[in-house]
């Protein structure tokens, strides 16, 4: 693609046609056109420059993804549009306008309901006067009676919502057999308008490569809803195989409990890759018995941030079940306030927990007391004095002196 050098007046009112107008977007093609204008208005950076700028901000925005977004032929993910807007210098308010533009493009692609049914629906003259459900029932029976290749051809000619209704009536196995012979774009649209659970049943019958291709072309929220309904081994493998940028867009739409369960189906390296796709706050909400082990394999600074963001009430049970070395290393790695909150879960009346305090060490406990709110710090001080004796000093008194 030849890079364009915009004229010096590209940002002037004298050339309003070069100014992006996200409010004008009502379709995927218009979204692509406006993104091209946005890039021009930002000085026409090269795709490589845009990719590098996104990486500097901690976002994945690949050159191929940028090109597809501007083509107007593919609906980009919301995260792609927002990242695109960010590297072009858009403010938070402007990015809100681009979010709304994406939503309108998404609606035009997936939510539009035609007023009329294509002529192929009139396979029998009597169908035209009956209710829609009755028509779909008749069509389902007729499609089921045809050879698979012929029925796939007829389904391709239907509006996706009606084709989805007919395929739903056929059941997962017959439906997936017909979709295997249908064009990629029609199959994707049918899966999107199907109920997620029904779509997932059909998708589970498809080969891994076809499934990956279909999901890769779905909007992130639609992909997340269907991945969440797939059998967990298939869903886990699929999440690892999609691009990192799309995974980052899909995961925020998924149920955290489902994500946590999917980790159990992945090897440590893949599970860590899934975790590190998330931002710190999201990763901190994951529950997994392997959580501490996975963080030990991760970048130390990211791991510390995740540990400090994790709710103490969900982190402490993981520490209870961890080997001593892992447990004490975690206590020392986290910040003083988080460490103090975890110490508050220790029951001083149970001698087995005294070893925890001694392994953490007096200095680290002292830091925790200094960092905590007074009422909470008093409780930790009481536990410390149960461990090291009543002479354990209150560090806050020295600070006041």
Describe this structure in words.
With 401 residues, the chain is mainly alpha-helical. Helices cover 65% and strands 0% of the residues. The chain folds into 3 domains: 16-109, 434 Repressor (Amino-terminal Domain) (Orthogonal Bundle); 140-254, MgtE N-terminal fold, CATH 1.25.60; 311-401, MgtE N-terminal fold (Alpha Horseshoe). It has 27 helices and no strands. α8 crosses α10 (184-193), α11 (196-203) crosses α13 (220-227) and α23 (336-343) crosses α25 (362-371). The longest helix is centred in the N-terminal third of the chain and has 19 residues, at 92-110.
What profile does the largest beta sheet have? none
Strand residue percentage: under 5%
Structural domain tally: 3
Low-confidence stretches: 1-16, 112-134
Say what the CATH topology of the largest domain is. Answer: MgtE N-terminal fold
What is the second-level CATH architecture of the largest domain?
A: Alpha Horseshoe
The average pLDDT score comes to: 84
Shape: elongated
- Summed up, the helix count is 27
Helix content: 55-70%
Q: Which structural category do the helix and sheet elements fall into?
A: mainly alpha
Question: Nearest-angstrom radius of gyration?
Answer: 28 Å
Number of E-type strands? 0
Order of SSEs = HHHHHHHHHHHHHHHHHHHHHHHHHHH
Cα-to-Cα separation, first versus last residue: 69 Å
Structure described in brief:
Helices cover about 65% and strands about 0% of the residues. It has about 400 residues and is mainly alpha-helical. It is elongated and about 85 Å long.
């Amino acid at each position: 693609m030849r890079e364009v050098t915009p004229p010096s007046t590209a940002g002037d009112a004298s050339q309003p046609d070069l100014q992006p107008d996200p409010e004008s977007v009502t379709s995927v093609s218009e979204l692509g056109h406006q993104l091209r204008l946005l890039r021009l208005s930002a000085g026409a950076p090269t795709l490589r420059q845009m990719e590098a700028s996104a990486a500097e901000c901690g976002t994945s925005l690949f050159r191929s993804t940028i090109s597809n977004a501007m083509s107007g032929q593919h609906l980009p993910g919301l995260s792609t549009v927002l990242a695109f807007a960010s590297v072009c210098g858009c403010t938070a308010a402007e990015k809100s306008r681009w979010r709304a533009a994406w939503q309108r493009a998404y609606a035009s692609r997936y939510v539009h309901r035609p007023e009329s049914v294509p002529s192929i629906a009139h396979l029998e003259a009597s169908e035209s006067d009956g209710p829609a459900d009755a028509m779909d029932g008749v069509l389902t029976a007729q499609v089921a009676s045809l050879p698979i290749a012929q029925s796939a051809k007829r389904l391709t000619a239907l509006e996706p919502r009606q084709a989805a209704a007919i395929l739903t009536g056929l059941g997962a196995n017959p439906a997936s057999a017909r979709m295997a012979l249908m064009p990629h774009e029609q199959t994707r649209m049918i899966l999107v308008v199907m109920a997620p659970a029904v779509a997932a049943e059909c998708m589970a019958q498809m080969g891994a490569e076809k499934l990956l291709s279909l999901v890769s072309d779905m909007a992130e929220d639609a992909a997340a809803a269907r991945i969440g309904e797939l059998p967990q081994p298939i869903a886990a493998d699929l999440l690892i195989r999609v691009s990192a940028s799309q995974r980052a867009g899909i995961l925020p739409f998924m149920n955290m409990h489902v994500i946590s369960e999917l980790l159990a189906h992945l090897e440590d390296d893949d599970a860590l890759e899934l975790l590190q796709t998330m931002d710190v706050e999201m990763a901190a909400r994951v529950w997994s018995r392997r959580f501490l082990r996975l963080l030990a394999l991760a970048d130390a600074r990211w791991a510390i941030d995740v540990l400090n963001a994790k709710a103490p009430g969900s982190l402490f049970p993981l520490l209870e079940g961890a080997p001593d070395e892992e447990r004490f290393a975690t206590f020392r790695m986290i910040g003083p306030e988080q460490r103090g909150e975890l110490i508050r879960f220790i029951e001083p009346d149970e001698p087995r927990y005294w070893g925890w305090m001694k392994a953490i060490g007096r200095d680290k406990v002292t830091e925790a007391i200094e960092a905590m709110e007074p009422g909470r710090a008093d409780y930790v001080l009481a536990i410390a004095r149960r461990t090291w004796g009543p002479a354990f000093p209150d560090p806050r008194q020295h600070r006041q002196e």
